[in-house]
Recover the amino acids of this structure.
């Protein structure tokens, strides 16, 4: 998927922002009255626990504890009264969900959200490490924030997320960007109040990046975007160790939340009126494989969730190795379980897949697709593909093109391979010239565009159910939303239908979106 396509799919202006919460404790005044000598003596020794890749690679099966007793420390419950925070998020849905948690923590400390850097008292960059381009964007933003820090030394600037788990990134920040106040990782987000306290009163940069997996912390506060679609994290980490991927080191080993905790969260969202939830995990269909006391997988979880009164349920991102018959059986029952399936293939060549350590072949992937098609003939399949992996030949790339045609993917996230430090592939020669990589990407995108356009044409004249998310960013007179199969639809209608599922007749099909006319008032979907 190229940049133009990404922009096309990000055209909805969200409405219905979450309410700002605040507490009533008076600890801010107590901190203000604390003597400077007392503060310095208590906080002069700042936390310094940088990431360690060697530790992160040690995959011991230690018992994971589940904690239900989380709470904001008493002396931080009102520290943000009258102050504002800004969180910039890069990367995947997991990062978006982590941002919701951090926003919840800050809100519970009395802070309010802002979109203006000049208004913010705290600025956090929630980063992505999966692509080099994402890393470059973050460092560019860090550079832009330096003048702000010089003008306002009291503003606290922090870097968190997956990039923080990389030794090279932390070393670069320490060396070139010493004005950064706070660095923390993906496993200790729940410690944001304590780390923020240290950053406020310390004379040194606060760094706490755990290179071991954290426990599962339930009952963390969240400030969700809007009241229409919600993310529900069902597991953390990944045990696949694909040779190009940094995620197992930045997110740790697979840890599944208990089914009852997930179901309770989904029921709560349904009671609040959410129309759609997406179950999240780095490898979401490996859910439950780490349970030692029961056999319970994603299929079992989704069957229970299908009984909850919420119109739409999705999940992302799945791995072909873990897409079992039980999951297919449950999805085929339909109802509120949608048959839009994102199934990353990465390459159409069995040899490239072997070197990537994907642990399935082209043939095995196509067998899985055939099973899905037989159970769900109308299912929409989308995927991820990397071009220009080390030693990828022209013939192997042609195999990718032929697989794309054979499966009939209606959309794909496509990437040029870039080495990530710390992964096995980073030690290999990146021997495909950039001009070859770009040419392959261009050919792949042309094919995906063609297949997307052909799939969209089938909707012309049809009436589809659209979950209306808000006004179009391009035109406030136009509303936008998504179909059950994740197709973007634009149409004119009253703002009163935002947040509802309505019927829209498609009048024009484009490559990446559909235009239509509102047929009737909101449709109740059970």
């Amino acid at each position: 998927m190229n940049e133009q396509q990404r922009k096309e799919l990000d055209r909805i202006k969200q409405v219905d922002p979450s309410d700002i919460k605040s507490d009533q404790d008076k600890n801010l005044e107590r901190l203000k009255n604390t003597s400077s000598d007392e503060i310095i003596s208590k906080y002069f020794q700042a936390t310094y626990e940088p990431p360690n890749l060697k530790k992160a690679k040690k995959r011991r099966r230690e018992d994971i504890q589940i904690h239900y007793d989380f709470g904001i420390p008493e002396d931080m419950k009102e520290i943000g009264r009258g102050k504002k925070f800004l969180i910039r998020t890069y990367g995947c849905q997991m990062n978006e969900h982590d941002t919701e948690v951090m926003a919840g923590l800050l809100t519970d400390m009395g802070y309010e959200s802002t979109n203006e850097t000049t208004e913010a008292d705290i600025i956090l960059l929630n980063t992505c490490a999966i692509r080099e381009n994402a890393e470059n964007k973050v460092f560019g933003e860090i550079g832009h924030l330096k003048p702000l820090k010089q003008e306002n030394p009291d503003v606290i600037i922090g870097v968190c997320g997956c990039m923080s788990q990389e030794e090279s990134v932390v070393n670069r920040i320490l060396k070139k960007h010493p004005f950064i106040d706070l660095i923390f990782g993906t496993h200790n987000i729940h410690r944001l109040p304590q780390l923020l306290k240290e950053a406020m009163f310390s004379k040194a940069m606060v760094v706490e990046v755990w290179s071991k997996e954290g426990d599962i912390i339930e009952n963390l506060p969240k400030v969700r975007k809007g009241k229409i679609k919600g993310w529900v994290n069902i597991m953390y980490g990944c045990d696949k160790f694909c040779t190009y991927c940094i995620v197992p080191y930045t997110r740790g080993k697979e840890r599944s939340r208990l089914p009852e905790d997930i179901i309770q969260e989904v029921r709560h969202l349904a009671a609040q009126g959410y129309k759609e939830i997406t179950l999240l995990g780095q490898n979401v269909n490996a859910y439950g494989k780490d349970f030692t006391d029961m056999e319970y997988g994603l299929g079992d979880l989704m069957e229970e969730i299908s009984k909850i009164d919420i119109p739409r349920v999705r999940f992302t991102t799945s791995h072909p190795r873990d897409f079992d018959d039980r999951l297919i059986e449950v999805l085929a029952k339909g109802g509120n379980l949608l048959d839009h399936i994102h199934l990353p293939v990465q390459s159409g060549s069995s040899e490239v897949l072997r070197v990537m350590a994907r642990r399935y072949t082209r043939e095995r992937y196509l067998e899985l697709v055939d099973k899905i098609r037989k159970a769900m003939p109308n299912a929409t399949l989308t995927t991820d593909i990397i071009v220009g992996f080390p030693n990828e030949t022209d013939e192997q790339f042609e195999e990718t093109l032929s697989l794309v045609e054979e499966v009939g993917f209606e959309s794909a996230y496509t990437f040029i391979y870039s080495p990530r430090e710390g992964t096995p592939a980073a030690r290999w020669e990146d021997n495909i010239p950039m001009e070859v990589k770009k040419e392959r990407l261009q050919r792949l995108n042309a094919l995906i565009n063609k297949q997307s356009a052909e799939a969209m044409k089938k909707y012309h004249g049809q009436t589809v159910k659209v979950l209306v998310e808000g006004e179009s960013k391009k035109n406030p007179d136009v509303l936008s939303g998504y179909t059950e199969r994740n197709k973007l639809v634009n149409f004119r209608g009253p703002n009163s239908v935002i947040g509802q599922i309505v019927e829209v007749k498609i009048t024009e099909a484009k490559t990446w979106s559909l235009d239509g006319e509102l047929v009737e008032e909101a449709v109740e979907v059970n």
Q: What stands out?
A: The chain is about 35% helix and 20% strand. The CA atoms of residues 132 and 344 lie 19 Å apart. The chain has a mean pLDDT of 89. The radius of gyration is 24 Å.
